[in-house]
């Protein structure tokens, strides 16, 4: 892709991922237009005041629930990254209709508007929680994945193509457990739900670079899963608060002991590339030769955080979260309340 010729729009552009995506796009790829589409005018103002004020930037106030506004925002756009979602598991459980309106109906609106406006490539962000979901957030993201994969059939002979990127926990994201641990360590005690818990782990920058790579390589219909390391929750707790007591409070509703990014059932349609797995759609319109150089997976393969070949050491964890450890009390409190 010649990014200098692209008009790029990101939904949820004022979130953690959106800011890092915009930063890297402006610094390295220089699209001719970069549209930040989000519903919070204050966050847009704060983002602009923080230095995101480039001639190629456009700030669009709008909600993915509003298909008419999406139609207007996508006029002339060639690439879309769909990052807008309600992501907090407890909030989605308590407000199920709102989660469905944003994560499912909003996704449909993005699909319809993109096809109508002739957008070339759309990549939707997903989560490990979409695999065998046990909470509403995961269920809505599973539905969204299904919609964005099958949207390629809706696009028909048009050049509009849809794919998804699915990955695990992000170190500096709004929902990270790190600021919670930082706040708790002031009291000398931190809480973990289960000492056996494991999680996939990647940085915001790694997530952005994955998305860029997927946009460049996608044929339309794939779910891209990066090969990323796992970490043990006890290692993270001991890295952040080595002198604190640890209370184990039990698994919360809607929470898993381990994360899964590729299930055994999905593995039958999945191929392995050097740095990622590609889940191929099981539809008649998919061309199997699209990833002919990738290799099929072994029978019974399952990509989970507890059977991963790559693990973060305590030293690597400390290096990854070093910026978080330097946060002052006000920054920690702001992250928790956001």
Q: What would your notes on this structure say?
A:
- The protein has 338 residues and is of the alpha/beta class.
- It has one domain (3-170, 201-228, 260-305): NAD(P)-binding Rossmann-like Domain (Rossmann fold, 3-Layer(aba) Sandwich).
- It is built from 13 helices and 17 strands.
- It has helices at 16-29, 41-49, 67-73, 89-94, 96-117, 136-155, 178-184, 204-217, 233-240, 264-267, 314-320, 322-325, 329-337; strands at residues 7-11, 33-38, 57-61, 79-82, 121-127, 161-167, 169-170, 189-192, 198-202, 223-226, 230-232, 245-248, 260-262, 270-272, 276-279, 295-296, 303-304.
- The strands form 4 sheets. Strands 3-2-1-4-5-6-10-15-14-16 form a 10-stranded mixed beta sheet, with helices on both faces. The chain has a 3-stranded mixed beta sheet with strand order 7-9-11. It has a two-stranded parallel ribbon with strand order 8-12.
- Strand 5 (121-127), helix 6 and strand 6 form a beta-alpha-beta unit.
- Helix 5 packs parallel to helix 6.
- The longest helix has 22 residues, at 96-117.
- The protein starts with 6 loop residues before the first strand and ends with a helix.
